[in-house]
Amino acid sequence: MKTIFEKSNGVCGVSVGDIEQLSESGISESFFREKGIGLPQLSELDVMRHYKELSDRNFCIEKGFYPLGSCTMKYNPKVNELLANLEGFNNLHPLQSDDDAQGALELMYNLQEKLKQITGMDAITLHPAAGAHGELTGMMIVKKYFEVKGESQRKKVIIPDSAHGTNPASAKMCGFEIVEVKSNEKGQVDIEALKNLLDDSVAAIMMTNPNTLGIFEENVIEISKLMHNNGSLLYYDGANFNAIMGWTNPALMEFDIVHINFHKTFSTPHGGGGPGAGPVGVKEYLKEFLPYPIVEKENNKYYRNYNIKHSIGKVRAFFGNFGVLVRAYAYILMMGDNLKLASADAVLNANYLKEKLKYNYELPYDYPCMHEFVLSGEKQHAQGVSTIGIAKRLMDSGYHPPTVYFPLIVHEAIMIEPTESESKEVLDNFADTMIKISEEIEKNPGEVLKSPKTTTVKKIDETLAARQPDLAFK
Ligand SMILES: *Cc1c(COP(=O)(O)O)cnc(C)c1O
User: Fold this and answer.
1) How many angstroms separate the alpha carbon of residue 242 from the centre of ligand 1?
2) CA angle (328 as vertex; 326, 334 as ends), nearest 5
3) What pLDDT, on a 0 to 100 scale, did the predictor assign at position 19?
4) Which DSSP letter does residue 258 get?
5) What is the mean pLDDT of each run of 10 residues along the chain (474 residues)?
6) What is the H or E stretch that residue 467 is in?
7) Is residue 148 within a helix (H) or strand (E), and if so which, with residue range?
8) H helix or E strand, kind and range, residue 376
9) Could you tell me where the DSSP H helices lie in 149-177?
10) Does ligand 1 lie within 6 Å of residue 214's CB atom?
11) Which SS3 state, helix, strand or coil, does residue 236 take?
């Protein structure tokens, strides 16, 4: 492994100048190193080739199909990168005065207005830097709301068993007790089970709709009414907004709070832990609880309003990742009414693939899906190759594997999200490959288990990699 990732041939690629001059720089000599720390040494050209070589080994959407369910690895228009890199945006400092930053504040204000339309909410905060961060912000708002209302006994948050793992984690971090509600045979929240959980200790429900099975909760309005009649709030996990844009929204479903993921739906590439944004929208009665500042407009001037009565405070030192906001705004303007078509295509593509694959792989919830669907590899598992083996085999055909073993309520889960940006040809080729793998497993599972053969790193010990990560150059 070292030979691939780590190199050093003793050639020095940089010159730090005269050591005497360093002494004149005013830095105290006590800070000087006495001996080198053994950093790798290579010429400039070798360094460049090394990184290019490493980047070629990465898989990315620019290289191929990336159907990672729930993660929305779609194509993001490159022009938005250009816009985010405009000097006026890129060189802005968060401590500049409002007067100095009118253009940026206008963009943020307009973006808030667009998000109000898209989500149906009454106010937006652009602070949270990720989906889970948005959830945390939302849960902090729920907590403060009930404190101010004098209902601090509401300590429970209900979460469906199909939920994304960040939901219980975020609620728990705010001190809530997590109560799970089961899904019924249609993969939706079991209403009777929900009714049994309701009393005055319940603060909120966190729901994803479409849920993580890619299925739209048909009884969502009934659920909203039940929760509101119980004096509880509804939180909408809108990470996968590309399923519904322009067709419906959380306000129409009577939710109180929502977060959306710019780094899934709104044109920021993700994966690898790069910057993202998870703006949160709330209904009018929760506006006074948002983190400060909020961008507002008065007499044609934009300003940061710090005066928010019951604000939960800051959730981030400054405004979120600004470049991500620029991309989202550009994307929303560029798409215009076509946002609706993007969602239609995302749903169409998912249903098309689902119908092609359901004869070779089990489809535990055989209903029309939204932007994604979940197969089960149980049949293949019984034939000797579990889902992870199918994922590895796909890599040999140049595909990024789908999400596997999530959601937890499906055994041997294979969660596929083709996204709106792929063509029929790509989907057909992927389906052919998946079908071919299922046939290979029937005939010769041992051969399938030999994959991946084409990748730099073959089968890895994931436990060891997580427990004892080897990250440093040595
Ligand atoms: C991705 C995702 C999240 C978390 O978003 P991050 O930005 O990764 O924190 C939450 N819920 C759902 C349904 C998601 O798909």
Assistant:
1) 13
2) 100
3) 67
4) E
5) 66 75 75 83 91 88 94 93 94 93 97 98 97 98 98 98 95 98 95 98 97 96 98 97 96 98 92 86 98 96 97 91 96 96 98 98 97 98 98 96 95 97 98 98 97 88 86 65
6) helix 462-467
7) helix 131-148
8) strand 373-376
9) 166-173
10) no
11) strand
User: How far is 412 from 83, CA to CA, in rounded Å?
Assistant: 42
CA of 264 to the centre of ligand 1 (A): 9
The Cα–Cα gap between 216 and 198 comes to: 23
At 13 the pLDDT is 80
Determine the pLDDT at residue 1: 43
In the prediction, which pLDDT does 23 show?
A: 64
Q: Please, are residues 245 and 195 in contact by the beta-carbon 8 Å criterion?
A: no
Q: Which residues contact 401 (CB under 8 A, 6 or more apart)?
A: 68, 390, 391, 392, 394, 395
21-30 per-position pLDDT tens digit? 666 777 888 8
Residue 419 CA to ligand 1 centre (angstroms) = 16
Distance CA(266)–CA(329), nearest Å, equals: 8
The Cα–Cα gap between 441 and 318 comes to: 52
The CB-side HSE value for 115 (13 A sphere, CA atoms) comes to 32
pTM: 0.91
Instruction: Provide the H-helix boundaries in 336-423.
Output: 339-357, 378-382, 387-396
Q: What share of the chain is helix, strand, coil (3-state, %, to 5)?
A: 40, 10, 50
C-beta 72 within 6 A of ligand 1: no
Closest residue by CA, ligand 1 atom 12: 239
Question: Given this model, what pLDDT does residue 148 score?
Answer: 98
Whether omega before 418 lies within 30 degrees of 0, making that bond cis, reads no
What pLDDT does 235 receive? 98
Tokens 């594997």 -> residue: 401
Give me the pLDDT at residue 326, please: 97
For residue 123, the surrounding DSSP H or E stretch is: strand 123-125
Supply the pLDDT for residue 3.
Answer: 52
Contact criterion met (CB below 8 Å) for 385 and 444? no
How far is ligand 1, taken at its centre, from the CA of residue 276, in Å? 11
CB atoms within 10 A of CB 88: 9
Q: What tokens does 470 get?
A: 């080897």
